[in-house]
Amino acid sequence: MIKPVFYPSDEGDARVSALLSRRFDLNEDVEGTVREILKDVRAHGDDALLKYTDRFDAPGFSDKDLSITPDDIAYAYSLVDRNFIAALEKAIRNIREFHRRQVPNSWIMTRRMGAVLGQMVQPMDAAGLYVPGGKGGNTPLVSSVLMNAIPAGIAGVKRIILTSPPNTEKKLDAHLLVAASECGVTEIYKAGSAWAIAAMAYGTGTIAPVDVIVGPGNIYVTIAKKLVSGLVGIDMVAGPSEVVIIADKGADARYVAADLLSQAEHDPMATAVLITTDKTLGQRVAAEIERRLKRLERKETAARSISDNGLILIVNGIDTAVLLANRIAPEHLEIMTRDPWELVPKIRHAGAIFLGGYTPEPVGDYIAGPNHVLPTMGTARFSSALGVETFLKRSSLISYTKNAFLDDAEDIIRLAEKEGLTAHADSIKARLES
After folding, report:
1. What is the pLDDT of residues 173-201, one digit of tens each?
2. What does pTM read for this prediction?
3. Of 368, 391, 412, the domain-final residue
4. CA pair distance 416, 425, nearest whole angstrom
5. Which of 117, 125, 135, 111 is nearest to 161 (CA)?
6. Catalytic, out of 175, 332, 334, 361
7. Is 332 a catalytic residue?
8. Does residue 143 share a domain with residue 185?
9. At which of 207, 234, 261 does a domain end?
10. Residues 6 or more apart in contact with residue 41 via CB below 8 angstroms
């Protein structure tokens, strides 16, 4: 299924080149379908929303089913056990503690002659969170609720709504509802796919539009978010999940194989890469993948991912491993070396960095605190994890006294006239004439 290859070598070079050219292409046929859905929801609002939900998710779905009520949330609490609540509360505490440190401050500075300049940081008025259904609602993506809702709340967003596709019984999973409630989200709608994104972007009779839309989803959700960006803000256009592991001879092959498979089970297009300085470790990891794969519930998905996109590279030194990792710019980077902290200053491009044998990527997915919504497909070269700043906007403050204006006036005129913007210059001259 997967065999180690040496890098550099002809085969290794070819495999790395293919990896570096990876792209998440948006299917043109699907994009056309999504455009029609967006257009339909924009024109017909709730009627279109109900039509698509009835057709694809919940037969017999009607307007009375669209909104989650306080009674629904109260009932949801009766369906979840105490251990789940305890785990949820721990995760929420950790995620809040981490994200509170991200809050930027507004600031003001003064300049000569009484000019005052500054920046105001303010939350957006409304945020829309999309949470995928997860196998027809049977595997609720609770962590997606936490990772999106908590930063929005810390940012100070006053109105936070959540949409998620209902199951065939026209319901949302109780665990998802409890997670939303624990994060302070009470405006919840049963809507999925591109029509949910359209509803949040354009608004319907029931759902008021938002300013930013965040959250993962399938190709229809991803394309819909891309198409409405500009009208609203979005977190990112994310591709399939990916992990790169740098390991030396001291790494445990069981841990490495398990972590590669933890990403491979997401999607057949997911990428799982080991870069190691030890040939024996590479061989043991390959064998361990074969062994552990058999026990997975999603073994078909993981097997295809490993077969199509898995890679074990044997390199001639740790510096080469770091160089490759930076070129790949992975969503998740795990470092399992003798001293992982020694490599941290050398890492330039990664969505999140996991250090040591006891920091597998799922720790970050669920409970450590940092956000698990991360840039993929090499975009970690220029973008960052979702965070509090995703839900904030900045406005500049400018206040000039007359003396400050007079001190800058002639220079403004020169610059404006050089650009041919005589009305700009005249705006300044009008004040010099008074």
Report:
1. 999 999 999 999 999 999 999 999 999 99
2. 0.94
3. 368
4. 6
5. 125
6. 332
7. yes
8. yes
9. 234
10. 48, 49, 52, 195, 198, 199, 202, 204
